[in-house]
Amino acid sequence: MTRTDDTVINKIKHVEDSLKNTLHRVEMIEKKLRTRLLTTENRERLENELEDVKEVLRRNEEKLQSLRKENSKSFMVAACLVFLCFLFYGVYMMISENI
């Protein structure tokens, strides 16, 4: 039994939401890093966290890119099937009119 959440479109939406949240997190960390009232320990912790969040951001962007590629492949398959249906219908109509 398949779930409705397993569609490519829903996966793309999920990854886009994740990207949005991650970008917001990056902005918040960078804003905190701009303040001069941080201790060295806190600054290092935030810089490490920023690196980790940027890595998650990079992975999500790659995942989004691959999902979009998969979505375009699915569209091309569907378009080819529609074209073949019209082609077969046209050939059928040409043959049946001659009989």
UniProtKB/TrEMBL annotation:
<keyword id="KW-0175">Coiled coil</keyword>
<keyword id="KW-0812">Transmembrane</keyword>
<protein>
    <recommendedName>
        <fullName>Coiled-coil domain-containing protein 167</fullName>
    </recommendedName>
</protein>
<dbReference type="InterPro" id="IPR028194">
    <property type="entry name" value="CC167"/>
</dbReference>
<dbReference type="Pfam" id="PF15188">
    <property type="entry name" value="CCDC-167"/>
</dbReference>
<feature type="transmembrane region" description="Helical">
    <location>
        <begin position="75"/>
        <end position="95"/>
    </location>
</feature>
<keyword id="KW-1133">Transmembrane helix</keyword>
<dbReference type="GO" id="GO:0016020">
    <property type="term" value="C:membrane"/>
</dbReference>
<feature type="coiled-coil region">
    <location>
        <begin position="36"/>
        <end position="70"/>
    </location>
</feature>
<keyword id="KW-0472">Membrane</keyword>
